[in-house]
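thread: overnight batch results

M.L. [08:02]
morning all. the overnight job finished for the chain we discussed friday. pasting input first so we're all looking at the same thing
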Amino acid sequence: MLKKITPVILSGGSGTRLWPASRKAYPKQLLPLVSDYTLIQESALRVNDSTLFTPPLYIANEEHRFIIAEQLRELDIDYQKIVLEPDGRNTAPAIALAALVLKENDPDALMLVMPSDHVITDEAAFMSAIQTGKNAAAAGALVTFGILPTSPETGYGYLEQGEELEGVPGCFALKSFIEKPDEDTAQSYLDQGIFHWNAGIFLFSTNQFLEELSTHAPNILTACTLAMETATHDMNFIRPNTDAFKKSPSISIDYAIMEKTTSATVVPVSMGWNDVGTWSSLWDIAERDNSGNSITGPVFMENTTNCLIRSDKATVATIGLDNLIVVATKDAILVSDKNQAQNVKQIVDRLAADDNSQTNFHTVVHRPWGTYERIDAGEGFQVKRILVYPKGSLSLQSHNHRSEHWVVVQGAGKVTIDDEVRVINEGQSVYIPVGAKHRIENPGKQPVVFIEVQTGTYLGEDDIVRYEDFYGRI
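M.L. [08:03]
and the structure it wrote out:
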């Protein structure tokens, strides 16, 4: 029986260069940027073949765990666990956590490590490349996949291909890793035909990876082993020990292992790969009209060419534009020359330095029980629209500085206020005094939507004292 491969899908990126659509609390992998599916859903569907793959293992952070679980549930896709990184420490420690989880059941498990936020349009070529690298990985090679370059790209690292491995056609020794080159150097790489873009996709056995880690980065292995030995388990989530994990250095798998090992192997492949790192790279792969425009949302154009224009809600009208990026969300608008799209991160950094919440949150904020959207705010008050999923429940909580008034506009919610429990239906309201223990639950099959009006001296999200919570947030 052929050994199956376990996909390990990394979901730790923040996608700052795709602001304002991508934000820290809801980054690009959770967005439907190239199809009706989000990027993380696309990555899950890509390996949803039970003849070749086991259910995947996800590495993510605490803030995104229920969003990821919900997006997988929407597609009825099975998965093993979601390992919650206590802190972002780059790819080598993240992959080490996954390897230690898989080792428990199968020390020789084959791991396919792949980012959750990349696009692959030729999935047949992707599958063929995995089959090519599988035998090399089973024999102890650390396989990476090199993308055949189509342009002198200066935004990617490169892999230099060596001699073909004996008995493993299509697999080559990995001669060197090369940092992002200048344009002339990138053009020479393109001309030589033995240099490939580094996609950050890997295939190797769990045992081999852990042995390499022990040899080349033992401090990572020590920290991650202790973190997993003292991990806690919550539903489908694994929480490694925070203090132990933070003792690991923050380093990529390329620097920690791949540049040091003698077992590195590259499989060249052309599979329509794109890391969707900027708005201009999204324009490169998007469907475009006869004028070269990629349009999403309510957009009207006159004499507009070669632009990417997206709007979540507001009508966008353009006249006489060329080669621009225009992205409008409910609370922010980006306008950029397409050739300057790499510099969006500089804007995000400036917003973050001003403590602007728009770097972290959309107007709609996702929680494990549902969503909330701030509608209005002023001195001493705030108004939110809150949606609670079927069978969802807010935590039993109280506030020290604010009172709340809830008006149900859709569905029926079960409301607890101190010792009183009652159902409030559409059109009914309830008042929660300062300091009262309260929550709302949705026992039904349809969402409950209510308007919350907060009044008080302090309205921050950290004014919450939790007593009971279904989602492990106490």
